[in-house]
Amino acid sequence: MVQKFWQCRDRSIDLSSPKIMGIVNVTPDSFSDGGKYYSSAQAIEHGLQLAEEGADILDIGGESTRPGAEEVSVHSELERVIPVIEALSARGLVVSVDTSKPEVMTAAAQVGAQIINDVYALRRDGALEAAEKSGCGVCLMHMQGEPRTMQKNPVYTDLLSEVKSFLAERARALTDLGVSAEKIVLDPGFGFGKTASQNFELLAKTEDFLSLGYPLLYGMSRKSSLGAVTGITKAEERLISSVTAHLLAVERGASIVRVHDVKQMKEALTIYK
Fold it and tell me: Half-sphere exposure of 227 toward its Cβ, with a 13 Å CA cutoff?
């Protein structure tokens, strides 16, 4: 039985209906909107706009995880995200930090972040401990390889089995530290070390991941695999395919969708419900 809420520090997020996580990239090089909201002021304004449009959670990231992306320093990432997290949290909004660095996790929690969203699933040294001490809700994502290399030649013997086993192991690593299962959400990692056909297999088999016992987050917004199917080369023009893919994920059991286009996603979910 999958839990119908997500405990994130002092917030309990109701998952009895699907929730929207709005993306706020404070980076110069994200694949879809890199540089558009690079200053703190622009990112804060964008976050407030997404909240007004219907985002239940704001996911703040200071390091691009697009294929081929280079790593940024802890100092640079902190400079990018901490002022934004602090300002949006002060407005009473539920804020997630999209990071793999334990130093950033800790600092983000100190200024009000409620959620840690980690594409490395807390595999970096000190990340598990930082997440446990923060008290935050945690999203654990599957990724084969790392952003610089993940799309070069992703190979699986059994895609679903391998992704499920990885997510189960990472969740167990957290609960073994004493973290409540109610704080954990899983993300199969659409677009992270998978081919287009593998990504759509993950979408088709969404329900299979529910057997792990945790709520699911799907993040497919504007991804290149959608363009591979539709022929739309510009990421910002993949609105309809993004909304459609996320609706399919929700229909198949996903509790949270991570999107750029919050207003349109909210409208679609309103019709869906």
Answer: 14
Nearest to 137 by CA among 59, 64, 22, 30: 59
Q: β-strand 11-14 against 57-61: which pairing, if any?
A: unpaired
* pLDDT mean across residues, the chain: 93
3-state secondary structure of 171: helix
What one-letter code names the amino acid at 159? L
User: In whole angstroms, how large is the CA radius of gyration of the chain?
Assistant: 17
- Structure confidence by residue, pLDDT tens digits, 88-129: 999 999 999 999 999 999 999 999 999 999 999 999 999 999
- CA-CA distance, 204 to 199, in Å (whole number)? 9
Q: Taken in order 245, 263, 115, 238, is the CA torsion positive or negative? A: positive
Residue 172 DSSP SS3: helix
Segments of 191-230 assigned E as strands: 217-218
Active site (catalytic) residues: 223, 258
Q: Structure pTM?
A: 0.94
Q: What φ, ψ does residue 251 adopt, rounded to 5°?
A: -60, -30
